[in-house]
């Protein structure tokens, strides 16, 4: 969202960003007005409790596949009761800021979709992992409940989740979107979303004669730590330990991004370098492999720098992404076994076919128009009110 909001603001448009307070800082320095009116991810996760209970409780979740858990929880996660509160918060912003000419929403943010639908203004989905799996049929019933709660009229086509189109930052031929998701207009996102970052000096001192593997679980996983009582769908501590054990078996230098989770009790070998945070886009520029949970942003960053992917999915869209990565020949889908993950990583480090396929994806991404070109497309959409934003 940030690159598109920044581009619109730089072009002179008034951009109001509605977000949770815990991510408001992401937009610091951008030419936008930030309104932290949404609940935090942790608070929103509370609404998963009844859905988890219907599945038999947390113990029952452990017996289900990641795909089964995702399918069962997606309607609540992205269109549950919390969406009604978010929609009311957005309506309050409309009262104070005026009716927008265009709504740009996260691909999994359905409150903005409902409010835009109610106001009759164009609404475009920005690139996101949720947007690649959230097909209209998945959330249709839940959204109907939210409309009733809000007093919104039912639309002629309640399944038109992408009536006004959606944006992507992956080349169409390498899209992660599922078959039920509408085609997208693709743009090349900035190489570094956060500007002014540098690599820590110790990374520069790593031996160039050995492969460099970047390993991590992204930003959402660590946020789930200590939330067993809130029914977090996965245990980030266990996942990190599996990744750390796999990294310990590799004949490579491994930068292990922990997200701040503790690893002091692990006996890590000298070639594994834990860090609470690393500037991932910069680090991927010099990496040979990315061992990741398979979130959309991480996949996009890896493709941007031509780095093959070993994907150990955890929740949400990640299982779907792992399958797509394998189908597209950009890497491999890993099972949660440290020895097997290490074997997969070792194979990928020597796989010229995967590296060549990833290089093709990288070239296709570099051929996309820059994010700044989306401004004119969105301006035209807002002015003409013509549905279906497609290439």
Automatic annotation (TrEMBL):
Gene3D superfamilies: Glycogen Phosphorylase B (3.40.50.2000)
Assigned keywords, A-Z: Glycosyltransferase, Transferase
Source organism superkingdom: Bacteria
InterPro entries for the chain: EryCIII-like_C (IPR010610), Glycosyltransferase_28 (IPR050426), UDP_glucos_trans (IPR002213), UDP_glycos_trans_CS (IPR035595)
EC number of this enzyme: 2.4.1.-
UniProt domain Erythromycin biosynthesis protein CIII-like C-terminal: residue ranges: 243-380
One annotated GO molecular function: hexosyltransferase activity
GO terms classed as biological process: antibiotic biosynthetic process
PANTHER family according to UniProt: STEROL 3-BETA-GLUCOSYLTRANSFERASE (PTHR48050), STEROL 3-BETA-GLUCOSYLTRANSFERASE UGT80A2 (PTHR48050:SF13)
Pfam families cross-referenced by the UniProt entry: EryCIII-like_C
Protein's recorded name: N-glycosyltransferase
């Amino acid at each position: 969202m940030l690159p598109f909001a920044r581009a619109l603001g730089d072009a002179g448009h008034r951009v109001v960003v509605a977000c949770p307070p815990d991510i408001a800082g992401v937009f610091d320095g951008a030419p936008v007005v930030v309104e932290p009116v949404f609940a935090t991810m942790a608070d929103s996760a509370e609404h998963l409790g009844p859905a988890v209970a219907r599945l038999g409780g947390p113990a029952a979740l452990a017996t289900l596949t990641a795909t089964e858990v995702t399918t069962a929880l997606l309607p609540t996660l992205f269109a549950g009761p919390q969406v009604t509160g978010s929609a009311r918060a957005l309506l309050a912003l409309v009262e104070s800021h005026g009716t927008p000419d265009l709504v740009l929403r996260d691909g999994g943010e359905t409150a903005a979709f409902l409010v835009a639908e109610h106001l009759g203004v164009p609404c475009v989905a920005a690139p996101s992992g949720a947007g690649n799996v959230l097909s209209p049929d998945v959330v249709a019933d839940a959204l109907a409940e939210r409309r009733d709660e809000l007093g919104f009229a039912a639309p002629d086509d309640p399944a038109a989740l992408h009536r006004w189109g959606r944006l992507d930052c992956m080349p169409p031929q390498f899209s992660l979107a599922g078959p039920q998701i509408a085609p997208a207009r693709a743009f090349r996102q900035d190489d570094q979303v956060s500007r002014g970052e540098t690599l820590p000096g110790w990374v520069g001192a790593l031996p160039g004669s050995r492969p460099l593997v970047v390993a991590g679980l992204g930003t959402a996983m660590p946020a789930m730590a200590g939330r067993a009582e809130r029914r977090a769908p996965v245990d980030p501590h266990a996942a990190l330990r599996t990744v750390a054990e796999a990294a310990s078996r590799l004949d490579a230098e491994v930068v292990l991004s922990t997200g701040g989770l503790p690893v002091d009790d692990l006996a890590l070998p000298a070639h594994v370098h834990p860090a609470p945070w690393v500037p991932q886009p910069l680090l991927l520029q010099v990496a040979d492999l990315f061992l990741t949970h398979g979130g959309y942003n991480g996949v996009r960053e890896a493709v941007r720098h031509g780095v093959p992917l070993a994907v150990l999915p955890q929740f949400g869209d990640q299982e779907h992404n792992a399958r797509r990565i394998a189908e597209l020949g950009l890497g491999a889908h890993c099972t949660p076994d440290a020895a097997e993950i290490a074997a997969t990583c070792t194979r990928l480090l020597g796989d010229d076919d995967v590296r060549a396929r990833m290089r093709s994806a990288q070239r296709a991404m570099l051929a996309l128009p820059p994010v700044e070109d989306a401004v004119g497309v969105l301006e035209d959409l807002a002015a003409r009110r013509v549905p279906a934003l497609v290439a």
